[in-house]
Amino acid sequence: MPAGPAKSVHGAFTIPSLDGIRAIAVMIVFVGHGFTFGGPWPGHVGVTIFFFLSGYLITTLLRREHDGTGRIALGKFYLRRAVRILPPAYITIALAVVVGVLGWLPSTQNPWGVLAELFNVTNYYMIWANNSTGDVHTGLPPETSMLWSLAVEEHFYLIFPAALILMLRRRLNYRRIGYILVFACVLAVGWRLFLEATTQDFYRLYIASDTRFDGLLAGAAMALLWNPALGDRSPFGLSDRAMRYGIAPIAGVVFVAAAFAPDPFRLTIADSAMYLALIPLFWLVIVHPDGATGRVLNQRWIAHVGVLSFSVYLLHRLVLHLVGGIVSAAPVADLLSLAVTVAAAQLMYVGVEKPLGRLRKRYEARMPGRPVPLRRRLARRRSARRG
Question: Model pTM?
Answer without folding.
Answer: 0.91
